[in-house]
Amino acid sequence: MEDISRAFDSARERKAEVEVVKQNVAENEEKTKQRKTEIEEELSSIQPVLDQAKQAVGSIRPEHLNEIRSLAAPPEAIVDVLAAVLTMLGVQDLSWTSMKKFLSNRGVKEDILNFDVKRISQSLRDKVAKLIKKKPTSFDAAAIQRVSVAAAPLAAWVKANIRYSIVLEKIEPLEQELQEEIANLEKAQRRLRICEDELNELDDKVAALKADFASRTTEAERLKRNLQIAGSTLDKAEGLIGQLGGEQKRWKSQAKQLRGDIAKIPLRMLLAAGFTTYLAKASEDIRSKLLNEWSNITGIDNFSFRRALSTESELLQWKAMGLPADELSQENGLVIVNSTDRVPFIIDPASACTEW
Predict the structure, then answer these.
(1) Given this model, what pLDDT does residue 35 score?
(2) Buried b vs exposed e over 87-115: b needs ≥16 C-beta within 10 Å?
(3) Residue 125 to residue 139: CA distance in whole angstroms
(4) CA atoms within 13 A on the CB side of 330
(5) Are the C-beta atoms of residues 347 and 328 closer than 8 Å to each other?
(6) Prediction pTM value
């Protein structure tokens, strides 16, 4: 019976943890979805512009490029556009000879179409943007179209990439947050699978214990019928049944008390979390005062931060390790031990807990 009770308690704890983890998974999924939506919204306005510019570059005919390359003294607008293109592609030589060599490359359009916008650094973007601002007419769609059919798509491609780079820089924090949320989601999902596996094992254990209990109960009934044959044995059996009846009442009373304690666990943990987060930096009288107020609000009588997060044996071990036995030092010790992901701010006048 005790094995069944322990198994039920373990199963109940795992079910509670599974619900918490499921809630965390749902929250992480929602945050991940929200970050993806924000990134997609930021890119939705500029992506079509970049795609259109790439499509225009892809449609440039070779004879148009040859026409530009054959110019002995190209118009200033063409030079400006090609200078911006070469700068973005990492070419330092911006002479007309270098530009003609670039245009003679068979894979010139592929180099442009396969350009990774993430290669644009802040300094490179500022350099190209300065050129566009200095020569706005050279990058005006209508103006450059009149000068060169081939240069117009290149000018549009340059401006689209600059705008896209600005958007990428803007959404970089969102992408970092997205990766963090994805990591948190994967971690929560792994924990959920572990908890569900443990819960299934506990369910199997409970089922096996129930079957064993049923088998033993059947055997007990058979023995009881046999014991009824002998009067003396019957008297002993009746006494035993009376004792078991008293035990049953005690078990029911304990089960009722345990159910009440379990029901209050979330509130106790809420008080413990509130203490760790907000009261560690307060003095003893403020801690006591606020804990009393919180206890009255939550309906938890005689709440003890030490009893909620530790045991007497653990506190005795800490005392043997040098931690003073006063309430302030022990509370500070619990705050330090349970603050795994941050450095706690505690009131420690004698530096006793800090040295410990």
Answers:
(1) 58
(2) bbeeeeeeebeebbebbeeeebbeebeeb
(3) 15
(4) 21
(5) yes
(6) 0.40
Dihedral, 216, 217, 218, 221 alpha carbons, nearest 10: 120
| Residues near 119 by beta carbon (within 8 Å), at least 6 away in sequence | 90
Residue-wise pLDDT for 215-270, tens only, equals: 888 887 887 888 788 777 767 867 676 666 667 778 888 888 778 768 778 887 88
CA 334 – CA 317 distance, rounded (Å): 13
Q: Could you give the C-alpha distances from 113 to 10, 85, 153, 234, in angstroms and in order?
A: 60, 12, 12, 96
| Beta strands in the chain, from DSSP E residues, in sequence order | none
Count of residues making up the chain = 356
Question: Coil, strand, or helix at residue 345?
Answer: coil
Q: How many CA atoms lie within 13 A of 315 on its CB side?
A: 18
**What three-state secondary structure class fits 251?**
helix
d(CA 106, CA 308): 75
Given a contact cutoff of 8 angstroms between Cβ atoms, the answer to whether 288 and 282 are in contact is no
- Residue 102 makes CB contacts below 8 A (sequence gap 6+) with 82, 85, 86, 91, 108
Please give the single-letter amino acid code of residue 274: G
* pLDDT per position as a tens digit, 103-121: 888 787 788 878 777 788 8
**Per-residue three-class SS string for 134-173:** HCHHHHCHHHHHHHCCCHHHHHHHHHHHHHHHHHHHHHHH
